[in-house]
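Chapter summary example.
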Amino acid sequence: MKNGRLSEFAGRDGTRTVLASIVSILIGLVVGAIVVLIVGLTSDNITLTGVWEGIRLIFAGIFSTGRNAAGGLSFGFNPTNVGNMLFRATPVIMTGLSVAMAFKTGLFNIGAPGQYLMGTMASLMLALGIPSDVVPAGLVWIIAFLGGILAGAVWGSIPGLLKALLNINEVIACIMTNWIAANVVTWAFDVSNFKNLAENTKASYVYRTTYNGVQTPKFGLDELFPGSQVNGGILIAIVMAILIYILMNKTTLGYELRACGSNRHAARYAGIRDKRNIVLSMAIAGGLSGAGAALYYLSGNTEFFWNTYQSLPDTGFNGIPVALLAANNPIGVVFTGIFMSMLDIAGLQLTSLTAYNEYITDVIIAVIVYLSAFSLVIKTLISGRRKKKAVEVQTAAAVEDGSSGPAGPEAADSGPPDVPDPDIPEDAQSRKGGAEA
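The structure predicted for these 437 residues follows.
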């Protein structure tokens, strides 16, 4: 019975998806270790000890506590690293939810960077523009957070409208709106009074929200992870992931959204308003990206580089591998977002503690992205091995039953086999057999 339950659990599609993601992660880490090895062996300023240290940091950089008195790497619980990992994971989780939400409804939301920028602009302008000596700082934070969500939702709905009404591919529309957002945000902050001109080293940066007394509450996480940037944003991101899971899997609206993603025309035939759902799906996805930006910049300890017209935020694009690796599962996005942030921390440890460059972790992420794109192949290989093993078990059981079968009582009572009588025509034989039956 126990083996049967384990076999049933292992045969589930969700289990195979998780296994495929784990395989992708392990292969990516191994490839990263190989890159570290090759770079170390071909570099004159990296010793074999340095190579080994680099490999260890690839796999366990989040637990590095620096160097000990003897100069070697030391490992243990590092609350600063863990807290910073959770802080960095917050916006990545939100953009991952944005991409996964759109994927679930049959849309590819590559417009998360633009939605992220619009959420950044709205949340910062509201947080810095509403005087906290008139409106309580906590209420200003709520208004700014909701404003970031709304701005991202409005910007995300534009490709949705173009897709629903004009059947324009959402990928093309999202790419165009990304660069429009980059220029709009640059212009908006360029003409605003929110630029930090008081410090010469802060040119082209916007004031932190603590300039106006607005900051995301810590909820006691700063005591668990002292010295880090962590705040309550990670808890809000987890709650929003749970809400998206409930929306997509437990509500009528979620069913309609997924039905439109599976087959828009069939959904319309069934009475589902496909155009409305396409726009709504992209609006929700955009709102999630805007929420990620708001949670990141309302923290009070981050600065925004407003001169963005030549680049797009990496956080928006990082949501794509996070969603792919999580197989578009909102709960899985939380874990994959934390994992991607863990790689970022490992990259920083590589840079600060060894002669390696932190961009080696980008190689690992790239490999994981490619493998997650081929997750179906990995799932097929896993399923093939399970089927092969099941066939071998059935064959062994059949052989065992066959060896004991003739000696059993059923063999004695089975009687001689039916042999056709050559003197009786074939059709008569069939009638005779039917009568006997």
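To summarize the output: The chain has two domains: 1-77+355-391, 90-341.
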